[in-house]
Amino acid sequence: MIEPISIDVGIAKAEQAGPLRERLARAVDDLMASLPAPERLCPAERRGIIARYCAVLEGNFIYWMTSAYLAARTDEARSIIQDNLFEEVRDCHPGMLRKFVIASHCIPDSSDAMAIYPELTKVRRFVGRLSPVPIIAMMAFFEDFIRRFMPYLAELARRQGSDEFEYTTVHGISDIMHTRELFRALDAEMAARVKSRRSGDESLSEGVRLLHALIGTIVAGSAAQGAGHDGDGTTRPQERPSLRRPTKSEGAPGKHVPAGGG
What we know:
Elements: H1 18-34, H2 43-71, H3 75-90, H4 93-103, H5 110-127, H6 132-159, H7 166-195, H8 206-220, E1 227-229, E2 235-237
Antiparallel strand pairs: 1-2
Helix pairs in contact: 1-6, 2-3, 2-4, 2-5, 2-6, 2-8, 3-7, 5-8, 6-7, 6-8
């Protein structure tokens, strides 16, 4: 399984997000290294990852980014997040994701919704507290993970027979800028936090830890999700994919890029 991350965030008094940025980047590196190689997954396992990813992202990403906007206290952070939201809505990113999922025959069902529900609920409750620095840190981590995850997701879809890669191509490029800009927003909020001498008791990495666990469920499913989907729509028992670190001979799973995708 993907191991829970431990991020030393004794930087509540720092005025810059640099140290936190480095820790979050390492956390994304660890996530990517933990992904099972696409060629080692059966069709049902590939389908599950794509479906659960959609079940989380499609209805929650804009909602969580809006929460970051509502929580932000600085004009700079609000402006950055507003630009991100504008692009998400203007370009209909949820519709882009749905088209990707339909083309790969991986539409989420009730078993996918139930698999993610416990960890998803924890993230939603955290976001509802509207704590600016922890939420923006979580969303910066999420954007960085998504852009790194896109080639892998595209490879899963290609192996499912899809040739629709607009979603993975767009987000593999645009989320580079989104990640950088969200870290600028984090810089602004952390500086404002120190200047106003607000309490440093809250964990800056709580949202990241909760989201990390949710991503683990996207990849591995849940113990209760014990049936796989065959191509004819029937179900069969399945094992959860191994999330061990691949050997050098197997190669890094994040480097599978289909032609025209990611």
